Amino acid sequence: MKKAAKWLLCINLLAWTLLAVQVLTVNMEQRVAQNTVPVQNGDVQAKGEDADAVKKKVALTFDDGPDPDYTEMLLDGLKKRNVKATFFLLGKQAEAYPDIVKRMHKEGHMIGNHSYDHVNLANLSKTDAAKQIRMTSEAIHKITGEYPQYLRPPFGNEPPECSCAKNMMTVLWDVDPLDWCCGSSSTVIEKVVKAVEEDDIILLHDASESSVEAALGIIDALEKQGYEFVTVDEVIFE
Ligand SMILES: [Zn+2]
């Protein structure tokens, strides 16, 4: 082979080698960008997996509001922690404090129906139960522009079968620390932290300072345990 031809062959080989290295590098960069870099043992590990995959969902719910003294205190605490909750409102309270309901809705919380007067719907006639539910849904719709899709009947007692709740889903609860009646906020926090499991719905009330303190304390304690707070639809339809 002539000297010039040998040189050409060498340059050609060098060019192919450089091209091959470049292709391998690009391939690796793409895989890194897609968060799937093979680790040494052959498994595929996702970037950020430790942050998201282990989160357990749990839903905080608040009944009987809005309360003129304590609901906004709770909304401030939820906002600070970037947590969304579900509020089951009384129709008469919603009518009395529409600005608080507006704020709840604007800040991304879910709003449900808890009857108009906090009555035991199971003891009412179909007509009266229907009126309790309809008046509350209308009150919420007037303020937020949306009809609630979820009903939490007071005391957990479902209404007699009536067309009023036909398009609504009844939502009860898994954990009830009785925050409205007994114990300090630390007792309530302790009860919830002890009892809670993944996808549970926790029942609280936004009607006293100790309940608000308990709610925020529960968030802080459970977030440290890898829980993430969501609205009830997210644990029901998971
Ligand atoms: Zn209630």
UniProtKB/TrEMBL annotation:
Keywords: Hydrolase, Metal-binding, Signal
NodB homology domain span: 56-230
Keyword Metal-binding applies: yes
One Pfam family per UniProt: Polysacc_deac_1
Organism: Maccoyibacter intestinihominis
InterPro entries according to UniProt: Glyco_hydro/deAcase_b/a-brl (IPR011330), NODB_dom (IPR002509), Polysacc_deacetylase_ArnD (IPR050248)
Protein name per its UniProtKB record: Polysaccharide deacetylase family protein
Signal peptide: 1-20
